[in-house]
Every structure is written in C-alpha cells, then in structure tokens.
Write a structure and sequence with these properties.
Layout (H helix, E strand, L loop, with lengths): L4 E6 L2 E6 L10 H16 L5 E6 L10 H8 L4 H4 L1 H16 L3 E6 L2 E3 L1 H8 L2 E5 L3 E3 L13 H9 L1 H10 L3 E2 H7 L4 E3 L4 H12 L4 H11 L7 H17 L2 H10 L1
Parallel strand pairs: 2-3, 3-4, 4-6, 5-7, 6-9
Antiparallel strand pairs: 1-2, 7-8
C-alpha cells in the first residue's frame, strides 16, 4: 500500500506523490489511509521543514474514486462506502492546514473535487499552464467534502468562490492566478521542481517563526484587530523566549 503514496526526501523538503496515475490519482480508502500515515511520519520528523504534495501521471488528483460513486449508484450504503474515505481525507486536510511545517501543493493537469480541497489545505500552491481547478461535486448531487466551502471564500472572496462552488465549472491556471488561488505559474512539467526549489528556499528561514505566522494567519477571520494584535504579541513573546531570532540574526551578521 505504501506505493500508493511515494515519498522522497530532498534535504529538509519531503515530496509526497499520489501514485494512482491510471485512476487519475482518485482517492479511495487505501490511498487516503496511506497518505494519512505518510503525512504523520513527515510531521513527526524533526528534520523535515517543508512538505510538497503532488500527483503522478497527468494530474494532481481527480477527487473521489468514481468506483465509490458507482457503488452508491448500484445500491451500496454511502455511510459505509463513501463516508470512511471522506472522514480520513478530512483528517489529511486538517493536518496539511495545521501541520508545524510549510506545505506546498504542486499542481498540474486536473485538481478536482477532493483534490481541490487537498490543494486548498496547503499553505502555498504552484501550478502549470493547462491545470484545471474545479469543485465538480455539485454535478453529482454532492458538496465539497474537504472544507472547500470554508477555504475558497477565504482565499478568493465570496463572489468568485460562489461561482466555482455553485457551477462546478473549471478555472484554468491563468484564472486561478488572477483570483489568488495559486501563487506561482510554471511551465509544463516544472511544477514539482519549482515547488521543491521554493521549499528549499523557505527552509533557510526559521520554521518556528513560519509555524507561528501560519497559526496566526489561519485564526478566525472574525477576530478583531485588537485581539489579533494580542495574539501576535504572544506569539512573538514565545519566539523571543526560545531565542529563535538570535539564531538568524547571528547568521546574518557573519
């Protein structure tokens, strides 16, 4: 089962590749269980600073395995066929969003349904020309199962998010860049290289500071400015007590 998600280390950067190219990296129970285990291992590794998630073959991830939907159509109980996959995928998504590491989604081809939710959970995203992003689930009488209704409006605003969510229509890489859905556009075939290079660059900075920033940036948007300032001051206090800035200031002075 470990072949379903292949892992490679590059210094402080770890690559996690969904490896079901014949199934368009669709998510079934063995795949999400393997991804969950591999992510946990990377999070617990103190030498890992950045995690890069990408897909083998022609795309990032096409969402739920169609076999699950066919089983539902054939009369199988969705509570036993669909929900277990969704529940573990939600754990994966929560871990990507809250992990004490920097997470980068390296996207190409298709980023659909739960695959889109996986990419949205990453802190940063790069994508190649020709990549298509879509929720799609509305076409199957479903809704985003992995936090898309929460993440999309926060990332791109309510209006564009509603258009994507209610129509299920795809947005290409150029449109995704204009909306702020992705951070960098790259040439075909260069998405993993660029994500890894960016990860190596990010790994030269303080992980403790990045994790504090990540936590603060993801707090409830209804938080008042005064409350946010207090949260930032407390996070800064913890960094100062740990001596984190001194390590990097000393390096700069050499």
């Amino acid at each position: 089962m470990s072949d379903l998600v292949q892992v490679q280390r590059h210094g402080k950067v770890v690559d996690l590749m969904l490896n079901r190219p014949a199934q368009r990296n669709a998510l079934d129970l063995p795949t999400v269980e393997t991804l969950w285990a591999q992510l946990q291992a990377a999070v617990q590794d103190p030498e890992v600073h950045v995690m890069v998630l990408h897909g083998a073959g022609e795309g990032f991830c096409s969402g739920l395995d169609p076999a699950l939907l066919r089983a539902m159509a054939g009369g199988d109980d969705p509570m036993t066929t669909l929900l277990p996959v969704v529940e573990i995928t939600q754990r994966v998504i929560a871990l990507l969003a809250t992990a004490p590491k920097v997470t980068i989604g390296a996207c190409h081809g298709y980023v659909l349904g739960l695959g889109l939710d996986l990419s949205l959970a990453c802190d940063l995203r790069v994508a190649t020309a020709g990549t298509r992003f879509a929720t799609e689930c509305v076409h199957y009488g479903l809704l985003p199962e992995g936090g898309g209704t929460w993440a999309l409006p926060r990332l791109i605003g309510l209006g564009p998010a509603m258009a994507m969510l209610l129509s299920g229509d795809p947005v290409d890489a150029e449109g995704a860049y204009r909306l702020g859905l992705i951070h960098r556009r790259v040439a075909l075939g260069r998405h993993v290289h660029e994500a890894r290079r960016w990860g190596e660059e990010l790994a030269t900075s303080s992980l403790a500071a990045q994790v504090a920033i990540k936590r603060l940036a993801r707090v409830d948007p209804r938080l008042t400015l005064d409350a946010a300032l207090k949260e930032e001051k407390e996070a800064l206090r913890r960094l100062l007590l740990a001596g984190e800035p001194l390590r990097y200031l000393d390096r700069m002075s050499r």
